[in-house]
Design brief:
This protein is α/β, with parallel strands linked by helices and 481 residues long. The protein has helices at 5-10, 60-72, 91-100, 113-163, 214-249, 255-264, 288-294, 325-338, 353-368, 382-387, 394-412, 416-425, 430-437, 441-455, 462-479; strands at residues 17-18, 31-34, 48-52, 77-81, 104-107, 167-171, 174-178, 190-194, 202-206, 273-279, 305-309, 312-318, 344-351, 374-375. Residues 255-368 form the CdaR GGDEF-like domain.
């Protein structure tokens, strides 16, 4: 506790005697100021105890002005030394002090002003030492809570007790942890940003900010370090799991070995699992790879097995759990949107065994290509199955077939790509294409002949038409159309 005028008066070693009853004897003393100026107020900053022997206070008017200047400057007490200029505290000084509410005490001749200053200085030093010791104890409590298995929930519990207020930790607006009995964050909370240098956009929220922010700043640092550590661990784990699941979906490992591998990443081989595939926006500014590897999931989904595979984040949802695959997809989509990202989620079916996990991945990836916010599972097409295989170079085939058609459109404005797409969509009907594009049928036939010349594939021949359709479908899927 800071030293007060009451503490000075109660110190038997000083022998001070109050001659007026001040308004607030318990106001903290900031420092002492010895002065014989007629008006020392320009040199006071407030909450001082002013010490004087009144050498320039020879008249009652001067005495009243001196006390009034101290009161206006916010002084909390006046120590008047007797035995030099005055044998007792002047009556005018006492009267003005009574009027303004300033505490005045007599300092006997035998008591040097320096003793009073030392007493105030020692009290401030003791207070600073006690504060430092308390801060170090609090630091140890928080660090111990974090490092002895209690983790972030334990740290928040300890912090809430120290601050005497509700405490919570949020990520992208989702509550990650709260101290026991803390109400969930709302508009009355004060956010304190946590910097981790990663995808963990987190906030430490407190109901009321403490007067002393040092312990809160230390807690910020601990939370930041822990979240950064969790982020690095999450990224590493997802990369390792991605390698395991990559071998399974490619069919590199099967049977008992595949079952053993998915068990090693935390999945039960015989249980039905559903794959969710999350795609985040790519681009240099987003740090796409880092986001996928480190992105935290909201609390209810945080314990699910996740992995990074082929530029998507896989979330494996056990069937029959507390939340359905669709519920988890909605939860993650909202979480990603709160992060300011335009993520897309593809939902696969629920199947048992490693082979079922592979099939669910194929479905989720095909669903993802539809480009919606959440894309539910649907019947797996031949194209989707072929695209899921790294062994079939459909992308290269599509580029090889369509590149000369695109080049012609770009150079001559021929609109061959549009004509080809409508021809295939309308089941090879020249008249239907002519009506749809408002063209003469001979124009449509001429464009189809140009396509045959450029690609070497005749749209009127079934085998060639299948290849053109496959090339166009792959191109659409890759473009998210």
């Amino acid at each position: 506790m800071p030293i007060t005028v009451r503490d000075l008066l109660a110190d038997p070693g000083l022998g001070l005697r109050a001659v007026t009853d001040g308004v607030d004897l318990d106001a903290p003393i900031s420092w002492t100021a010895s002065t014989e100026l007629e008006d020392p107020s320009p040199f006071l900053s407030g909450a001082e105890v002013v010490l004087t022997v009144g050498l320039r206070q020879r008249t009652t008017a001067a005495q009243r002005r001196f006390v009034a200047s101290l009161a206006s400057a916010g002084a909390v007490g006046l120590g008047f030394g007797t035995g030099l200029g005055h044998d007792a505290v002047p009556a005018a000084t006492r009267a003005e002090a009574e009027r303004t509410g300033l505490t005045v005490f007599e300092v006997p001749y035998a008591v040097p002003f320096l003793a009073i200053t030392r007493r105030v200085a020692q009290a401030h030093a003791d207070q600073a030492s006690a504060r430092l010791e308390g801060l170090l104890r609090d630091h140890q409590v928080l660090a111990h809570a974090l490092l002895t298995g209690r983790g972030l929930p334990g740290l928040l519990t300890a912090l809430a007790g120290m601050l005497g207020t509700d405490v919570a930790l949020t990520q992208y607006g989702s509550v990650l942890h709260t101290a026991p009995r803390s109400r969930l964050p709302d508009e009355s909370w004060t956010p304190v940003a946590i910097s981790t240098g990663s995808a963990d956009a987190s906030t430490l929220a407190v109901r009321a900010l403490p007067a002393d922010a040092d312990i809160l700043a230390y807690a910020q640092g601990l939370v930041s370090l822990e979240l950064s550590s969790q982020s690095r661990h999450r990224a590493s784990l997802r990369q390792v799991r991605g390698q395991v699941l990559g071998d399974i979906v490619r069919g590199t490992v099967t049977g008992a070995e595949a079952a053993s591998r998915i068990e090693s990443v935390g999945l039960q081989p015989r249980r039905r699992h559903r794959v969710l595939a999350l795609s985040l926006p790519q681009g240099r500014g987003h740090g796409h790879d880092r986001l996928l590897a480190a992105l935290p999931l909201p609390g209810p989904a945080a314990d699910l097995v996740t992995a990074v595979l082929q530029e998507t984040l896989l979330i494996i949802v056990p069937e029959g759990g507390a939340r359905s695959g669709r519920d988890v997809a909605e939860l993650i989509a909202a979480h990603v949107e709160a992060a300011g990202l335009s993520g897309r989620i593809g939902v696969g079916g629920a199947y048992p065994h490693p082979e079922g996990l592979r099939w669910s991945w194929f479905e989720a990836r095909q669903a993802l290509s539809r480009g919606g916010r959440i894309n539910d599972v649907e019947k797996l097409s031949l194209t989707g199955l072929l695209l899921a295989s790294d062994d079939v170079p459909l992308g290269a085939m599509s580029d090889e077939v369509l590149a000369p058609v695109r080049a012609s459109d770009a150079e001559h404005g021929t609109q061959l790509m549009i004509t080809l797409a409508r021809y295939l969509d309308l089941n090879g009907s020249t008249s239907a294409v002519a009506a749809d594009l408002v063209l003469h049928r001979n124009t449509v036939r001429y464009r189809l002949a140009q396509i045959e010349t450029l690609t070497g594939l005749d749209p009127g021949v079934t085998a060639d038409r299948v290849q053109l359709w496959l090339a166009l479908t792959v191109d659409r899927l890759r473009r998210g159309e």
